[in-house]
Amino acid sequence: FSFGEPGSFPSSLVASPAWMVADAKAMSPTPGSGYPAKLPEAQGEVQKAFADQADWGPALADFENHATVQGCYGDLLAQMDPKAKKILQVRTLVPLARAAYESTPGKLSAKRTGTLNGYRSAAEKRGVLWRADAAKLEERGLPTWEAERADVRRSLRMPAYYEACYEGPIHSYDSGNGEWMAAFDAPSAYLLVHMHHYADLSPQAAFDALHEELDRLALEQLPSSVDTVRCIDVGCGVGTSTFSTVRSLEQMGRKGLVTGVDLSDYFITVAKHLQKVRASEFKGDVALEFMHGDGLDLGPCGFGAASAELITISEVTHEMPKAVSKALFKEAARVLVPGGVLAYLDLNPVQILTGNVGAIAERIATSNEPYFDEYLELDAAVAMKEAGLEVVSETWPNKDKYKTLESCSLRIIIARKVPALSLATWTGSWALTRREAWEPYLEFLGVPQPFREAATNDPDFHQYRISEGSFFMDHRIPSKSVHKRFTAFLDDSWQDSPYAVPTAKLFDEGSGKAEERKTQWKHAWVHFPTSFLSTMPNFADKGKTVTLLRELAGVNEIKYTVHVLDPETNETVVGPCYAFMKRTSWESPQSFAAELKERFASGISRPLEWRLEALERAGAMALENVDAISAAQAEDHVSPSNFMGASMMVKSAVAFYKASLASWVAAQPKEETLPPFMQTEGDWEIVPEPKGVGLVIAPWNAPFILCLLPLLGMLAAGNLCVLKPSETAKATSKLIAKLVEKYFPDRTVLVVEGGPEVVRQIAATPVDHILFTGGGKIAKKILALAAEHLTPVSLELGGKNPCFVDVSDSEHLALFAAEIVGTKSYFGGQFCQAHDYCLVHEKVFDEFVDALQAKIQALGERRQCQMINAAHARRVRMLLAGHEEIARPPLPEGRQEDDRVPVTLLISPPLDSAVMQDELFGPLLPIIKVASTQEAVDFVRTRPKPLVAYCYSQDPEAWASFRNATSSGNLAVNAGPQRMQSNLNVGFGGVGESGFGYSIWGRAAFDDYSHHKAVFCGKSFAGSVWGAAPPRQAPSSS
Fold this sequence. Notes:
This protein is of the alpha/beta class. Helices cover 38% and strands 21% of the residues.
């Protein structure tokens, strides 16, 4: 027994974690001993196996109080808390216990064997067929197992602490983690040691319940917006905990990939075998794999920095030195994504330290847990914080059974990797915690003294979702029935405010209802992305300007600072006044689609009057903002950017809908088709009813009009709608969001901005109809999303639109050339109805090519077409590459602007080249020679069905051939694209690979977005022949 030299006492034994000290001090101590007079009853089988030990308390107390010890170390011992003293006592006894075993050869091995057999018998009494299950695994034969172990074993450097437990003893095995017996026994052993926590359940159910509780606590901290959870189970053993995690994820509706990692190649081999055996237990929504690897270095297993959302460490650290545990937490912090979660479960030091010193020493001396003393002094929560993790929960399982931490042999810690402050930090729910210096603000507003307490302290809740250009807020003050949802824009421009009355004024119950008035505000970033300022002029009609600074004070706190300013001098009149909100959840606010579904359920959009008024607002949104729309589209390089022409289409469409809608929404009577003798008295009708909530996903080439036209159809059909403008056309997207917020303040139409991630979120709500306009590759992904909920979809996709030019006179050939070249240059080819290639009759081939070239040359500088961006221009130029020799007119010399491509003919390109396989969506025009109309028809018919086929001919037989023998979404005979979009009585849509549905305009769009419900209304009961009605007989022929 030696403390070492004076002053060299380990500092780790002097100070203990505060929560452990508090629990230790709550024990009833034997004087001077630092541990309870009455030892607690052992709970689990391991505790029971080591419980029969001498009571060392009096002897150690006498030693501590000995005059020599007190003289040398009395002051030091006085500084030590009960936990530190007990660990010191354990370390005092361990050498003696080891020496006792070493003095009798074979004694320690016999002890382990006896303990192991005791476990096996105890397990079998409780329904765990330990010996039989282990034997069943062993029956596969060691050659088979060794071959499989060779397959899973990876070359890695085993840590020294683990190597000692791999080649030497741990638990009840002489070669603990490096032998087959331990691996075969492990599934049963894991069940045995935990079944007492849920004694009323089967062993497997008890184990699953324990881990389900751990997983639930962890997943509550992980936003549901995480589509796929990447999880690592460190120290997975034979996979029992890993299987439970997979089950928990599936039960909670999550998808993901779980990887079990363990240093024992024996255990991993058994885990992979059990994975096959237990495959039928799982749905398959969560993928599972096992890897031989080191949790201290997950890089070789494929886990780089910020690559996993969830890491579980279950009953691993009690087998590790303290320094190794700390290193493990650091590695977990490295691998977790910002906001990722660590779920930690292990033995509870507080409960264990209430036990007998001799029992703890025996566990170490026998190498059951060779580093147990270090584990008991490990403050796991502090170590996690030192690793850069935030501890969000310290608890224990099954609180129905265990009322206190001290009474349970396990503890749970949930920690999260603290994310850097970013836009995502704002996302979530926040609750008011306190206000400071709020009285002057209330006095400024004129809130009487009796109501100021409530105005200061009543619950106030915010939810945020913030992007660089805007913020969405859900604001609730339950005591005043306030619930507002709105989007505001961070562009320092004035906008209508949703607050007609300052919320603090609502507490002034003595002055009557506050007068509501239209107000404005503006918002701008102060320090992106952590703080922004809202400015409100003439606040509460008091002639002063109020500013509200919102700033992230940390990951879990928002600080609000209010100033009242003199608008003329900008000097502070009142303030600063403060409010602080604490995070209550990381969950994103209710999705816009879910919000609209609730609003639709109220029936708001069913009346004809609402639909007509909504159509009027949608039309005004376009017609009153033509210049702003044109400017935004010009900023986005949309061709053409001028919205004036499109606005006339909107004006006509709105008038058409309003004139027609009453007849469309009316029920349509239908004639009976049954023979008269089988008919019952009643009426048939078809009732058009709205589907619910639509999602319009618009393209970049016509970003405003292809949001608005489908919206008109949605509103006419009585649907509410989410618009998702193209993220490529950023200025137009932002303008649409602002205009919709202004023209639809009732939030019956909403806008979500962003990329594929927001589409996934909205589609998952789910919505009731999706329209996507764009390319086929993305359309397939949209269909896959829709298929998960069987959501109906309309697709407007385009394709390779052919144009047949038949034998014609020179005048007509010139007209055709002007139409084709004019359309190409006007839109830059970035138009779903653009001519993609020409099939030209050989008799006029050369003349028509010359006519096209002449029209292109006449363009002058306009030959260079601006693409939506440089990336799209590069794509088009790649299609052109290699075809320079067949380009007409010749390509301009010198360097071209990055985002421009010239209108160019490609004469007779190879039919297997990319320009003849891919939709061009650019100012290129391949020209193919054909010998006849039939050859042109055959050419079109053997290729994917286009959105539009053009037939330019003076021969009615050619018209008939294209009409009857080709398939396309639409057929334009002697007409250009504009004529095809001019009749609101005719639907417009694709077929096959060019899409389906009629979602753009007119009655066809109304029908596409409506459910046509068949209704039979019987005037008397009309039963079925197999139910309430006898079979009817036909009248006899006589």
